[in-house]
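Subject: design request, 324 residues
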């Protein structure tokens, strides 16, 4: 939720032609990106557990002909097709965007490409290297005008766990949350968005400060969850973001440790009616039994808290604690 995929549009345009990129005109950027995609100069793909070498480089595809015969043809994958196109058009830059690059089996997908994407091993470089592909079998090299942009979520897998060979071949740009973009212009120079008095910048910063203390910096909540909100938005829209995005993310991060979620949302500083996550009142007999089992508290979601403006304001403005 920090805008990684969003940013790939800008990065691709900067690589292909800086003149096409506008810092303040998102619509223009998207149009240029769409045109370049249509031309085949930008390709987008997403890695996942089932994604393989056959999808990326080349593989044998089984096809049935009109007369019922079975054909086994070698088909190029997305990266090989891009390289072929770029190789015939060396005067232009080409970009492949790989979303969720860390979710695929890197060794399996890249194969010999791990070596070929190094700058000094590219076609036309001093140490140019080509390999014979296993299915074609043709000689293959990577042109200098092909650029690879990858995105990864370090909350899913840390950078340290990424394939070492791949890690050495990429430059990494951190994409932390940017609460300062939660303005009327969606630029840092704009005025902060206030939804019925709720300051979105302070809200997100306070939540993330507590996540950083209680968990780590890799699990901070992204600003993109709040980007659709404006000064005209309603309390119900803020509540929807919390119910559908923030609370489920916190459940995932803290493995349903409701006491820590209670702390992240500053519920320990609020009156019970304003607590999103509060201690559940249960029968004394049940409490005794739970304590015998080593369970001190039971927790519940307080649906009414989502309807109260102060439930949100008290996350960052603790000076109001005690007021309802």
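Subject: RE: design request

Done. Sequence follows.
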């Amino acid at each position: 939720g920090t805008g990684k995929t969003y940013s790939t549009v800008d990065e691709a345009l900067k690589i292909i032609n800086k003149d096409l990129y506008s810092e303040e005109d998102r619509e223009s950027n998207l149009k240029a990106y769409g045109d370049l995609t249509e031309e085949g100069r930008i390709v987008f793909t997403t890695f996942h557990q089932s994604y393989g070498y056959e999808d990326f480089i080349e593989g044998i595809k089984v096809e049935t002909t009109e007369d019922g015969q079975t054909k086994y043809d070698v088909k190029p994958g997305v990266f090989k097709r891009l390289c072929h196109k770029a190789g015939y058009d060396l005067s232009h830059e080409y970009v492949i965007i790989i979303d969720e690059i860390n979710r695929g089996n890197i060794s399996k997908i890249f194969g010999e490409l791990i070596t070929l994407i190094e700058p000094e091993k590219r076609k036309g470089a001093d140490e140019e290297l080509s390999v014979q592909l296993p299915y074609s079998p043709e000689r293959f090299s990577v042109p200098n005008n092909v650029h690879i942009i990858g995105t990864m979520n370090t909350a899913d897998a840390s950078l340290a766990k990424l394939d070492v060979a791949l890690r050495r071949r990429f430059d990494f740009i951190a994409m932390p949350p940017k609460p300062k973009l939660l303005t009327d212009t969606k630029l840092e120079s704009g005025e902060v968005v206030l939804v019925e008095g709720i300051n979105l910048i302070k809200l997100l910063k306070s939540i993330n400060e507590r996540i950083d203390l209680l968990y780590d910096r890799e699990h901070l909540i992204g600003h993109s969850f709040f980007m659709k909100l404006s000064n005209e938005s309603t309390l119900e829209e803020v509540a929807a973001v919390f119910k559908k995005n923030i609370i489920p993310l916190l459940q995932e991060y803290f493995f349903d440790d409701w006491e820590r979620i209670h702390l992240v949302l500053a519920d320990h500083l609020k009156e019970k009616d304003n607590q999103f996550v509060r201690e559940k009142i249960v029968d004394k007999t049940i409490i005794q039994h739970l304590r015998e089992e080593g369970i001190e508290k039971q927790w519940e979601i307080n649906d009414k808290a989502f309807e109260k403006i102060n439930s949100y304001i008290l996350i960052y403005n603790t000076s109001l604690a005690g007021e309802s």
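The chain has a mean pLDDT of 87.
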